[in-house]
Specification:
Elements (H helix, E strand, L loop, with lengths): L18 H10 L13 H10 L7 E5 L4 E4 H10 L7 H11 L7 H5 L5 E7 L1 H6 L13 H16 L22 E3 L10 H4 L8 E7 L3 E4 L6 H12 L13 E5 L1 H9 L4 H11 L1 E3 H6 L15 E3 L7 E5 L7 E6 L10 E4 L6
Parallel strand pairs: 3-4, 7-10
Antiparallel strand pairs: 1-2, 3-5, 5-12, 6-11, 7-11, 8-9
Helix pairs in contact: 2-3, 3-4, 3-7, 9-11
Length: 354
């Protein structure tokens, strides 16, 4: 939406005598995630659109399997409902474009019984500008940008894409990230190349990565002072017999926090070496996988020597620096078990000049 113009809004409007009545209306119609919402009035919607210079009818993506179209107006409505500030809108627009990229395969993880969520990772200057947390309590509460952006994504999935629990969303259990799941990469205190730079963007650019992700698995190692010891514990978490990654068909995200980062980077290890080491260590004999019933068929002598890897290749391990500076914890975030049909996608965040 260019400055000085006001393209018409196209969504249906509803009347409510106050904001409490509006919230109750949204609850009654199933348009919320179960929590109170900010009523999306026309001025609030227009402020969202103006912040990203978007016309209401601008198509940000299409979910072909569901024949659903995500327009800028629909995104703005749900962003207001989620409690977002207008300055979050460029990040959300990029996230929508990434989610609707065919490589991400949105329909699969959204409809799966596995119950994964869309993890949004924000990179570059915009993360710091709008206050997306990359440090202490990384996956927890207390940060408006993280909470609002992640929640807006979920509301769009429900209200625009039809991912209603028990209907299109067939999750057996789900996880709390389905309310909100958004973090930033800690580039300021990272010794490594940022993820968006690894994926072809300039360091000065801002970008968003979307990843179909299970809940984060905390990895504790308070005693090892070697990269190998810390990474061995992470690798073990990646190939527990119940983990989605034991099938070796999906990506994995490794989040390395401050104290572990000091040990690993202090020994001269870069991301490539970390990926290579984890790929070699995060594996398990095929025989063990069969004994657990994760794969069918009789166990042969060859199965004792054949290894199942957590990921198809080292490049399928994403590594970022994030999390608090104190505490020797890191995290493994599993990808969706149906990973052959989804892949993380990174898109540039378009920002208004001036």
């Amino acid at each position: 939406m260019s400055q000085g113009t006001q393209a018409p809004l196209t969504s249906r409007s509803y009347e409510a005598h106050d904001e409490v009545a509006a919230m109750e209306l949204y609850h009654e119609r199933g348009w919320t995630d179960g929590l109170p919402i900010v009523p999306p009035t026309e001025p609030r919607i227009r402020a969202m659109l103006a912040a990203a210079d978007l016309a209401p009818e601008r198509v940000l993506g299409t979910v072909h399997e569901r024949q659903r179209v995500i327009t800028a107006e629909k995104l703005a409505i749900n962003a207001v409902m989620a409690g977002c500030l207008p300055e979050y809108m460029p990040v959300l627009a990029a996230a929508m474009e990434a989610m609707c990229d065919p490589r991400f395969g949105l329909h699969g993880p959204v409809a799966s019984t596995a119950g994964v969520a869309v993890l949004v990772i924000v990179h570059g200057p915009i993360a710091r500008a709008i206050g997306v947390n990359s440090k202490a309590n990384l996956f927890g509460q207390g940060w408006r940008a993280n909470a609002g952006i992640g929640r807006a994504v979920r509301l769009v999935l429900m209200n625009v894409c039809g991912a209603i629990p028990g209907q299109l969303d067939r999750a057996t259990l789900g996880h709390p990230g389905k309310y909100t799941y958004c973090i930033a990469e800690d580039e300021a205190d990272s010794p490594w190349t940022p993820m968006h730079v690894e994926r072809g963007f300039a360091a000065a650019e801002s970008a968003v990565t979307v990843f179909a992700a299970d809940a984060p698995h905390s990895v504790s190692n308070h005693t090892s002072r070697s990269p190998e010891g810390i990474l061995d514990t992470i690798a073990d978490s990646m190939v527990t017999l119940g983990a989605a990654n034991i099938m070796g068909r999906t990506e994995a995200l490794i989040v390395i926090s401050g104290e572990h980062r000091q040990t690993i980077a202090g020994a001269g290890w870069d991301k490539s070496r970390i990926r290579g080491y984890l790929f070699e260590k995060a594996r398990r004999p095929l025989a063990e996988v069969k004994r657990a019933g994760r794969l069918p068929g009789p166990i042969t002598p060859e199965d004792e020597r054949t290894m199942k890897t957590a990921v198809p290749a080292p490049e399928e391990i994403m590594v970022i620096a994030a999390g608090g500076d104190a505490g020797r914890f890191s995290a493994f975030v599993p990808g969706w078990a149906g990973g052959l049909s989804t892949h993380s996608v990174t898109k540039r965040v378009a920002q208004r000049e001036g």
